[in-house]
């Protein structure tokens, strides 16, 4: 799905309305992912998986920083996430369905931080964006 001009505007505007730093959303989303979809823990067996652990927050921050850079380059998400795409496909071998699960958790986190600002159009813009990121991170599989 293509991000049109209005989607891009809504993405940028909603980042500006967050009541926290963008990087903090990642830890929150990853915490939720591991609780709501416990099978995702298999990818992080070397982590301290206690909710809110430093491992989880640090990893979440890395994810959020990657999302932030993709947001700054929405015209070239593929180029921006090229190395991460290789990493997830060839090294980590994360099953693509996990990206959808993380996206769902990310929506909940955005809704918590944006409250009334998170309307249907803003939701759709984020959903398209996350779909593009997920596509890029899983397209090099097999
Ligand atoms: Mg991935 C590492 C981004 C989904 C499992 N992920 C990373 C890193 C980044 C990143 C930036 C660090 C890379 C590095 O250190 O060089 N991940 C990222 C994004 C998204 C995503 C942007 C989707 C929006 N990752 C994702 C999902 C899973 C997963 C859904 C599995 C459920 N990622 C994963 C693992 C690592 C990374 C196991 C390595 C963690 C480690 O050992 O430090």
TrEMBL record:
The keyword Lipid biosynthesis does not apply. GO terms for cellular component: blood microparticle; haptoglobin-hemoglobin complex; hemoglobin complex. It comes from Ailuropoda melanoleuca (Giant panda). Belongs to the globin family. This is Globin domain-containing protein. Keywords: Heme, Iron, Metal-binding, Oxygen transport, Transport. The keyword Metal-binding applies. InterPro entries: Globin (IPR000971), Globin-like_sf (IPR009050), Globin/Proto (IPR012292), Hemoglobin_a-typ (IPR002338), Hemoglobin_oxygen_transport (IPR050056). Residues 2-142 form the Globin domain. Involved in oxygen transport from the lung to the various peripheral tissues. Heterotetramer of two alpha chains and two beta chains. GO terms for biological process: hydrogen peroxide catabolic process. One of its GO terms (molecular function) is oxygen carrier activity.
